Amino acid sequence: MPSCRAFLPVILIPFVAGCSAAMRSTTDNVATAIVRNASGTSLGTLRFEAGPNGVRMTGQLNGLPAGAHGIHLHAVGRCDAPEFTSAGGHFNPGMTKHGLLNPEGPHAGDLPAIGADASGRATVDVISPRVTLDESRVSGAFDVDGTSVVVHAANDDQRTDPSGNSGGRIACGVLERS
After folding, report:
1. Which residues contact 108 (CB under 8 A, 6 or more apart)?
2. Which domains does the chain have, with CATH numbers?
3. Is the pTM of this model over 0.85?
4. Predicted pLDDT of residue 143
């Protein structure tokens, strides 16, 4: 009769492999972006976490002008100041129109606007069901050229193509694996 020790490696190998896969998937489900203004000053870090309802973006930004600001995921993971045009257009793999209220939209990167208080602080807590952090999917933020998050100068009307009349780009951050 074989000893119990002979079966121990057979039992542990699947367990260890399962733990390793679980740890990888946790890391693959989280990203961050340090959001900077045109002068390069950090306004804060946003956290992106994949969940059952999409990707949730949370964090706090400081130093914004008071008021509402459009915030979008953009198609390229580059943030060259001062205008951040290197971030490209909105992340839009489905080739739809802009706006959460547009019957022909929205872009995958369209998000609800954020509001900065009188001190310039904005709390960010939004979910996008149209984006994943899986680079193998069309809706994945980690495609070949990456993805950025851009804060605009004005509120987003959520209808007007291509960017909701949300004004110039005042801050930008590149999504990076955590």
Report:
1. 73, 90, 91, 92, 93, 94, 128, 130, 131, 139
2. 30-177 (2.60.40.200)
3. no
4. 84
